[in-house]
Amino acid sequence: MSDARTPAAEAVESHVRAFFEGHRVEVVVCDLGPDRREAVPELRVLVVGPGPRSDSWAYVTAGCWASTVNAGHGLEFVMTSQVRDQRFIDLMAMITYYHCAGHQLDLEHSMPIGEPWVPGSTCDHLLISLPYLHGPDLEHCPLPGGHVRILWTLPVTAAEIEFRRRQGHEALERLFDEAEIVPTDPFRASVV
Hints:
Blueprint: H1 5-19, E1 25-29, E2 44-48, E3 57-62, H2 64-68, E4 73-81, H3 86-103, E5 110-112, E6 123-129, H4 136-139, E7 140-143, E8 146-157, H5 158-167, H6 169-179
Helix pairs in contact: 5-6
């Protein structure tokens, strides 16, 4: 195990707590099970309750960076939701495992969830994007000798992913802006 793993996860947690000052932050340790534990041995999901900065819930990974760090730089992920639900903690663990087990997600990438984001939702993919709801102050987390970039995992529809493949990421983001989507609404209509 890398000596950097625990300090990096603690630095991410400290960064998230400072960013969300005034919010309740719960640390959930995620054990991915014996066959997957090795990929992200110290995975935590920071569950941030509503507060002065945001009226939504935020789920932020801590532990992903240390499993995929390259030249001191790596990623963690954030998802936002209207409610606190174990489902979102599980999704964050799934995203982290997918990333750390060799798929190397990055900005403008996507991944299928394999089922609706929540029952009844048409959003069944995740789009990796800039954390627009929180801005660059959450996105950039310095570490001693490195840097963590926290990217947003935005639930989207299969049609939106297909549009992005044909027209590009920026074109899809323009449609989101034009439609004024509520990104935490699991039942929002597809923009395409």
